[in-house]
Structure formats: structure tokens, C-alpha cells
Amino acid sequence: MSDTLPAAAPPRLRAARVSVAACFFINAVLYADLVPRLPEIKDRLDLTNASLGAALAALPLGALVSALASAALMRRFGSARVASFGLVALAAAVWGAAVAPSWWLLAGALFVAGALDAVVDVAQNAHGLRVQRAYDRSILNGFHGIWSIGAVAGGLIGSAAAGLGVPLGVHLGVVAAVFAVLALVAHRSMLPGTDQEEAAEDAVPAGGGGALRAVLPALAALGVLAACGAFVEDAGSSWSALYLRTDVGTGAATAGLGFVALSVAMTVGRLTGDRVVDRFGQRRVARVGGAVIAVGMGLALAVPSLATTLVGFALAGLGVATLVPAVYAAADDLPGLRHGVGLTLVNWLLRIGFLASPPLVGAIADASSLRVGLLLVVVAGVATLLCGRVLRATVSRDG
């Protein structure tokens, strides 16, 4: 175990763990608070559905443009500063989107928000992995579970504000101010020193073209696993409601339950996943998870009823729960690369997966049917089962 902390480390580690969890929560809350109020923004700016969609597309575009800069920013400022101060800037960008007086300024604010979100995402995971290495056991899944709780909390706050008629600028301004302050408070309890000090202790070389070429096969496999995670999660958010309405024949009131089933199961899996990973190892858990994804979605597609579909999406959510955290941990420990470099690259590949999944499934659905299009999720499960062997057997460095 590599640990630069003094003998009285446990209290400091616990405080750092709480601070990283706070970053994950804040990161999720900020944009989720805006989502329920998008219809008001659309009406205020007199936007069409297409123009609103084009503005929202600036969010993932900004993420793709900026994500690869994360490693360089962390080398310069450290993951703790990038995560916490990045959240302050993200809060301002989300508020800017809420009060934007034109389409161009709305799209610009969302582009900046997407760019900041990508950098913060890498930094908070990098610092979470630094804390995990000091703990010498799995804790990263819990952070991702806290993110899911934050997304729900933000959506509820935004919905309540909309229902009470709180002005957009006031609502998002208060949210931005409160959570920006919390992000700065969290920074005070993060691990001291720089990420480079830890990298030097672990004897991780700086990395260069030769080092990158040496780890390209493992990096490619991790990229495939990240894309598999994106395909499974996107199936719930983009296609579950349509599948339940058109292929299963449910009513509007129950069509959204597929997304709920996947999201709840994934959140539960993440909140309990650290104990499971410590008990069975992240490689085994990820590979079994791939099998569960394939079986679950296969059930939903082979027997299209409400009950089987909900069970299938829930199994898919449970199977994918620990996958992305495991991929992040493996990428951050690739030999020959500084901490943060592999994580940055895999995070970028994950975002490409989220960008590619909807049009790919949609194109197959148009050419055949949505049931055939969603077979890609079954393929993702099988690919996870096969490629999961590149993950470390255990999180502990003694394992």
C-alpha cells in the first residue's frame, strides 16, 4: 500500500472521503436542478424543439472538446483543486444557462458547462481513486452511488422550484451559490500534496509515446468496456419508455418505469458494490455483471411483457453498476502512465460511447425494429464478460 499520510491517517482519510463524496453529489445536483426547468427556458426564448435540442447538444460537445485536457490540468493544479474549483465554475455556467437571454448565449453556457463537467468528472474520480489507494480497498462505487442520489435530489429541487413558481434566475442562483460554497468547503478536507507526489512514490513513469503504445491493447479493451457501460445506461434513459410503449404496449403512466427500474437497481448496486468488489474482486464482479446484463436484456427482449421488461432493465442496471468505476480504477493504474492520463483517455471514450449509442440504436431500429436495436445491449453484456478479464482481480495492492 502506498500512503503518504502520517500515522494519524484514518480521520484525515475519512474527511477526504466525505469531501470527494460531496463533490460527486454537487456535480450531479447542479445540472439536474436545471433539467425540470428546460421547458420554461424554451418558452422564454421562444425556441422550437429542434433549436432547444441543438442548444442541448452543446453540452456533450463541450465535454468531448475539453475532456482530454483533464490530465494536464491535474498535473498543473492537482485533482483536488480541479474538482472543487471546477464545481464553482460549473455552478456559474449552469446559472448562466438559466438566465441566458438568447439561443447563442444558452448554447454557449451549456458548452462551457459540458466542458467543465467533463474536467470535474475526471478530477473527482482521480481524487477518489487516490483516496481509495490510501484505504487499500474499494470505495469508488459508493461515490458513483452518491452521484446518482445527487441527480435525484437535483431533479426534485428543480421540480419543486418550478411548481412553486420560483424565478429561474433566483432558483439557480441560490443553488449555484450554496453548492459552490460547499465545494470550497470540501476542498479543505481533500488529501494534501499533489497527485505527482503519489505517482512518484508508486514509481509510475511520466509516460510518453512508447509508454502509451505499450498499454494501447489494455487501453482499447478498457475503452470497449466503458462504451459497453454507456450503451447499457443509455438504453434506460433513451429507449426504455419507447420500448415499453411501442413493443410491450403499456400506457403512458407505466412507460417510464423501465428507466426507473434500471436507475434504482444501478444506484443500489453502486451503494453496495464496494463490499461486493472487496469480497469477490472487481474482475469477477464486472464479468458476472456482463452476464447479468446480457441475460436481463435478453429476457426483456425475448418476452416483451411489463413484468419481464422491468425485471430485465433492473438486471441490466445491477449488472452495469460497478463497471465504470472498475474501468476508471484500472485505467488510472495502467503501468507506464501517470495517474490521471489513462483515466482521462477512458473517460473521453466513455463520452464517445454516450454520444454514439442513441443514433446507432435508432438507425438499427429504423431499419428493423427497436427490439433488434436493443440487442446491442445484449452484445454489450457479452463484450463485458469477455473483455472484463483486463481488469485487476482485486482493488487491494496486496491482492
From TrEMBL:
Keywords: Membrane, Transmembrane, Transmembrane helix. It comes from the Bacteria. Pfam families: MFS_1. The chain crosses the membrane at residues 15-32, 52-73, 80-98, 104-123, 143-162, 168-186, 214-232, 252-273, 285-304, 310-331, 343-364, 370-391. It is found in: Cell membrane. GO terms for molecular function: transmembrane transporter activity. Residues 215-399 form the Major facilitator superfamily (MFS) profile domain. It is a multi-pass membrane protein. The keyword Membrane applies. GO terms for cellular component: plasma membrane. This is Fucose permease. It comes from Geodermatophilus normandii. The lineage of its organism: Bacteria, Bacillati, Actinomycetota, Actinomycetes, Geodermatophilales.
